[in-house]
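Progress report, Aim 2. The chain analyzed during this reporting quarter is listed below.
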Amino acid sequence: SQQHDSRQRELSGPGGRKARMRRASLYVSTECREINVQQEVKIAECVGDGGFGTVFRGDWAGTPVAVKRLHRQDLSQEVLDAMKAEIGVMTRLHHPNIVMLMGMCTAPPWVSVVTEFLGKPARTTDGAIAHIATVYQLLHATATRLTNRHIKSFSLDVARGMSYLHNCLPPIIHRDLKTANLLLTRSLQVK
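Predicted structure tokens for the chain:
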């Protein structure tokens, strides 16, 4: 019946109760998986360095991971608790265009965030083979020529990821969207 159809849309439509309940459930628990990087992760080479930390490729329980080791290791318990709460929320985000967070390590000297490992080998402008993990690196450090198809695909991937974050309850705002923070999979999907 028409009344049943409208009730069903109310419950399961984009703004319906089921959707609100599903999105709200991301925020019920703020527990964060604690990963002891020194004992559980086999660290390989350094693949990048940024303002907040150095990124290493690693292997955790047979899974390739990126370990972002924070430059600053002397964090107060209050700051660590806030980080754990934020990482706890982020580990519950599941979308093809959002980097999967595995957990964090709070034990110095490896206070770090552990995520899925992304990137691919590519030829740089000087002919060497390097690990390319971001759109910025692809644009500035390789001889790769992007087609209109690539640009459209990258744009759609970014839009899908941002739409997912903005539709969480409460909405999640990225605040640092730039090509250096757009990670690439082996198949050039943007996360």
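Confidence is low (pLDDT under 50) at residues 1-14, 16-29. Strands lie at 41-49, 53-60, 63-70, 101-105, 112-116, 120-123, 129-132. These observations will guide the mutagenesis work planned for the next reporting period.
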